[in-house]
Amino acid sequence: MAANGPLGVAVIGVGTMGADHVRRIDGVVGGARVAAVADVDGDRARAVAETVEGCAAYTEPAAAIASPEVDAVLIASPGPAHEEALSAAFERDLPVLCEKPLTPDPDSALRVLEAEQRLGRRRVQVGFMRRFDADYTRLRRTLAEGGLGRPLMLHCRHRNVSVHPYFTREMLITDCVAHEMDSTRWLLGQEITAVTVLRPAPGSGPSEALDDPQLVIFETDGGALVDVEIFAHCGFGYQVRTEAVCERGTARIGDDHGMVTRTAGRWGGEIAQGYLERFGDAYDREVRLWVDAARRGEVTGPSAWDGYAVAAVSRAGVVAQATGRRTPVEMIERPAFYGPGRR
Amino acid sequence: MAANGPLGVAVIGVGTMGADHVRRIDGVVGGARVAAVADVDGDRARAVAETVEGCAAYTEPAAAIASPEVDAVLIASPGPAHEEALSAAFERDLPVLCEKPLTPDPDSALRVLEAEQRLGRRRVQVGFMRRFDADYTRLRRTLAEGGLGRPLMLHCRHRNVSVHPYFTREMLITDCVAHEMDSTRWLLGQEITAVTVLRPAPGSGPSEALDDPQLVIFETDGGALVDVEIFAHCGFGYQVRTEAVCERGTARIGDDHGMVTRTAGRWGGEIAQGYLERFGDAYDREVRLWVDAARRGEVTGPSAWDGYAVAAVSRAGVVAQATGRRTPVEMIERPAFYGPGRR
Amino acid sequence: MAANGPLGVAVIGVGTMGADHVRRIDGVVGGARVAAVADVDGDRARAVAETVEGCAAYTEPAAAIASPEVDAVLIASPGPAHEEALSAAFERDLPVLCEKPLTPDPDSALRVLEAEQRLGRRRVQVGFMRRFDADYTRLRRTLAEGGLGRPLMLHCRHRNVSVHPYFTREMLITDCVAHEMDSTRWLLGQEITAVTVLRPAPGSGPSEALDDPQLVIFETDGGALVDVEIFAHCGFGYQVRTEAVCERGTARIGDDHGMVTRTAGRWGGEIAQGYLERFGDAYDREVRLWVDAARRGEVTGPSAWDGYAVAAVSRAGVVAQATGRRTPVEMIERPAFYGPGRR
Amino acid sequence: MAANGPLGVAVIGVGTMGADHVRRIDGVVGGARVAAVADVDGDRARAVAETVEGCAAYTEPAAAIASPEVDAVLIASPGPAHEEALSAAFERDLPVLCEKPLTPDPDSALRVLEAEQRLGRRRVQVGFMRRFDADYTRLRRTLAEGGLGRPLMLHCRHRNVSVHPYFTREMLITDCVAHEMDSTRWLLGQEITAVTVLRPAPGSGPSEALDDPQLVIFETDGGALVDVEIFAHCGFGYQVRTEAVCERGTARIGDDHGMVTRTAGRWGGEIAQGYLERFGDAYDREVRLWVDAARRGEVTGPSAWDGYAVAAVSRAGVVAQATGRRTPVEMIERPAFYGPGRR
């Protein structure tokens, strides 16, 4: 990076999510520019690169990451491709923003942890963007301040209008509930120790094949109990809600708000239809903070440890879902490298 | 009334409102029975009387009131007929619940005041039922407790789905806003001293002929400023809302609530469509308290003075509406008979 | 009962709940009077009887029920005393309103079912008052109308400010969650087939000894999944909330509402502190409908079968709580006497 | 501006508002940099300039604007200084973002209008930032789509926790209600034709000297009626709310939302305490769009005509406030240069 010049970012994977990050770095966030993009679909890579001045297109992630114009790497390719891209970035000691999941399973995540530790300093921020949402931040602060007493339960709702046809039952856990795994850990400062998955008779239509919705239960090492309703084809809106039940009170985020109309015998408002409508600001803030830190030579935010922990809980969740049984989470001890285990 | 037997009530006027009171005394409120009904429409009187055991039907109010079975009188006939029915009740010294307006104009209301004073004790409760609504009661208590400081403004909304075809522009003031005249006086413990009526270009359809909606401004002898939106053909629901703006905070009643649904991209609930849906409990409580007091030989609740005051403010309001000018309210001094002027 | 005279009611048990019913029959509901009260504490019986004209006091339920002044029986004594009082009422073929639980266990409840069937017609209404609450009624109608599709899950919250010192862990299930057992059955028209009880580390203070709060899971024969948070010492208010998650939308009742104040940097309102504040209207309506039906010689509302079903689910719940295991509910087939099994 | 380099901005006036814009251009908005700042307080100018790399400090606005590093001008000095700074920018034909008011009175605003027209294209965007707020945007779209019918009334609330000691009664109109003047014009696409100011007895403390709060009434050339509560020392929060009353329904923005806590018998949340908390996103969007347009050589957004119109309405408002009388607004015809008068 030229002294004080903008951070040159390589965006790896320019599907929906990656292309949105390109737009964000180009138009919303100051201090950075998209220097390169890579996508297995070369036409797609070129099409995106053409929207940005001075941006090169690649089909090989490693080639993009090797470009001298590149100072930092944003990985938005499918999960199975993450480990290789992370390795390439680690070789150049570049700061990385890696979309969740860090990797698809705890074993590969562990390899990433070990590689990062060998570099001697944090290089990876994992894309758990809810930590940058104003409401989540307020809820965490409220819990930490302690006025409501110790948190005992979290009731979480995670509803999507619909998901892609290739979505699998396992992805309810690994793609959707993964967000609640991280936010539970972050809100409570506790690790998840066991997972149970309960299921009603599914809804009809696309829900039927997915066994959708489900109720996922977490237990934590701090004794908290968390229930997560995941409903991938709820049909009516994108809704993410958390109610924390504490010893002396409750706190709830994620209720609908905005303009209220009254007409034809009804009052109410519109429900957000997509995650960008609900979390767009959080993504902007996430990337801005990553860019700011990278320009200072640092990486902060959710760590590779957080990515590993979610991979471990996801594995237990998939087993719990398949067997119908309470499944303990198997995890290594938290390395000192990643700081103390409780907030 | 037989010692400890139920209170025999004559209901004068059995249109929509009167028939509803017959149902209420018969089925909801304990300690009273409908002994007689009167209506200029004899068929209607007989039809209603037949629904109640031992109830006589009359076309003449005076005849019903004269019945030895009658211990108390509920007047629900049109306003112009009230004075005569009140006189008949006064002759027998009976307790009266008189639907608003007490009488249609301040002069006749003054005659009622004087007649009641000659009887030496309160005989009339005027049907300002909002004073018996849980939310209004809570708002009044909050203002009186003083935690929010002195009330400076009230913002009131009064919306009907629609009104009858014979409704006139004046009735926006005398029939609808009359409720806010009383509730302003009761919430603040102040008299209204001047009225101004402001008007946008009216809505189309039935609103056009009525110059509907309007914004009615009250000034009070305590220095408060009150604005009332009256919208008689709002089309979407029955909505009565008051926001009190005080020195150190605000208090609002009348927001929509109840079951909230989320479907098809919208969240929200249903709006009450009629006054009984919104104020049914208040009517029940009003009549129950009147019956209880009457059985003890007393009359409490909104007094004939309150009826007179609203008649005086209504007259000023009608002038203000016709002239477009701020119009002072002309009232006599409050007789000591009716207690101190401020709460 | 004298033809068309008021229904003479014997109130059995005049602790908090029974005394409140005496007040309700005496002052709120028309068409009935308290003819007798019975309580093991004779002083308490006499003290309550003295507040009502012509009311006799007894220490023996059977003696009160035998009084010729008595046309109907309201049982509000502790659960273990219900079976004997029901028998006495059955001997005289009187209509009964029996506070929940019908009896404390399924075996005794079964004996009541059989005794009622021998009488050849329904004599018992069980006091599941939520069925008379306006919000619950609206939710049930919404689910039945089908616009939201089939119900898949219910999320229920049941929070008390605090409970009595003698409250036991089992009573969380049998006293508190019993309400959700009935409302689940009634809202969905399904029977509960299994119960699981999950628990976080309890809150401190009085919650600790009770293992409070808990999360109770129901499965139903219609494939629905229900979670109930019971929090007996939440400290901040009485809160009962249900969110139904259906195929095409959700419906939620029990959010806080009422007057909203804005002061000192906060907006919001007060939370109900007790069940009478929240369900007082439902109790009034319950007793009014029972009195109206009894005067017609009928008994409607929640039946002895509903009481038995809740006793059976409660037993499974207590086992589930003690063992930590999913526990199937054991129930007899629904007798034809009690009508079809689904709404 | 170097081809494709960042836009060099001169920020004129670096008090609270100007310093916040410096921070925004430097850290939040991409594509621009602060090249120069000017402030009559040279120390302040230098202190701010030192926080930004390569930023020069001036005491003379004209000197800053003349710098060859400067491509665009953001004016955040006090209103009386605006005309001179605008002239200097016009001499160099630079795009300007001018904080409201455009100028303090309609005569000077008219001179600005004329000068801009002589340049032959729009050079000025006026800082009415509410037009960039998501809720205002949604309300305007809803009104324009017409589903609710023609707008008849707007009810606006504008409350500040407190204002500076030097704040005057006139500033309630020219500084605070000026926002509602613009948003009324923008939401309705109508010009304001008359102003009336009504006042209760003021609150005590700092409100007393200001005659605070007040109720300001606008009439528009489309027949709408608008009431604005301005309460400069409400004490509890920064609150900006608008309810549009249309022929077939209402739409309301500005209700409090966010995290809801339940504790100690109360439910509710926090109220924003300052305008940046409420409108920070709108400011970001405003500046971003101005920068984007300026880099394309354009100026869009609220125009100098909007600034002039608000100055004209403000003058009428100050007269109405002083005289207590309804005061017509005097304005020139809208020049064709500024496009058609209705949206």
From TrEMBL, chains A, B, C, D:
Organism: Streptomyces glaucosporus
Protein's recorded name: Inositol 2-dehydrogenase
Domain (Gfo/Idh/MocA-like oxidoreductase N-terminal) ranges: 8-128
Gene designation: iolG
UniProt keywords, alphabetically: NAD, Oxidoreductase
EC number(s) from the headed UniProt entry: 1.1.1.18
Functional summary from the UniProt entry: Involved in the oxidation of myo-inositol (MI) to 2-keto-myo-inositol (2KMI or 2-inosose).
Reaction equation(s) it catalyzes: myo-inositol + NAD(+) = scyllo-inosose + NADH + H(+)
UniProt domain GFO/IDH/MocA-like oxidoreductase: residue ranges: 136-251
InterPro entries for this protein: Gfo-Idh-MocA_inositol_DH, Gfo/Idh/MocA-like_OxRdtase_N, GFO_IDH_MocA-like_dom, MI/DCI_dehydrogenase, NAD(P)-bd_dom_sf
Subunit and interaction comment: Homotetramer.
Name of the top EC class for this enzyme: oxidoreductase
Protein family membership: Belongs to the Gfo/Idh/MocA family.
KW Nucleotide-binding (keyword) present: no
